[in-house]
Amino acid sequence: MSSQIVNQDWRNVVTQQNQQFFPSITFEESEEKNKWSFSMKLPGFSKDRLRINLNTRTRIIVVTGQKSDGLFNITRLNERVTIKEDCLLEGVQAKLSNDTLIVTFEKEKK
Q1: Residue 50: closest CA among 58, 42, 39, 60
Q2: pLDDT of residue 9
């Protein structure tokens, strides 16, 4: 009987926890450099666990990923950003540095 209680308690401890992560997002526009960018604070997310997809029809960029604390907790990211109409969709640059993802777009020349 006591082993049944131990096994039941252990299952409650080992249950995997999934959490949704909501990043801080900052937008920046540079008229001099003719660029528009956004940055996301992604503490603990590694480059190989992130995916960035751009839908050119809807002009929405989707950033997804996940991280684990090495035990039983998984944190998931699923963030959508609408791209401004005056941004070119070719030549998009993305860089992850110091836990910050920066995505930059060239703007149409006026």
Answers
A1: 42
A2: 52
Please, what sign has the CA dihedral across residues 85, 87, 92, 93?
negative
Look at residue 70 in the predicted model and tell me its pLDDT: 82
3-class DSSP string for the chain: CHHHHHHHHHHHHHCCEEEEECCCEEEEEECCCCEEEEEEECCCCCHHHEEEEEECCCCEEEEEEEEECCCCEEEEEEEEEECCCCECCCCCEEEEECCEEEEEEEECCC
Residue with tokens 């907790």: 73
Distance between CA 77 and CA 94 in Å, rounded?
17
Predicted confidence at residue 32, as pLDDT, reads 85
Residue closest to 55 by CA, chosen among 29, 83, 32: 83
Residue ranges and CATH numbers for the domains of the chain are 17-106 (2.60.40.790)
Q: What is the mean pLDDT of each run of 10 residues along the chain (110 residues)?
A: 48 69 95 94 95 97 93 92 95 96 92
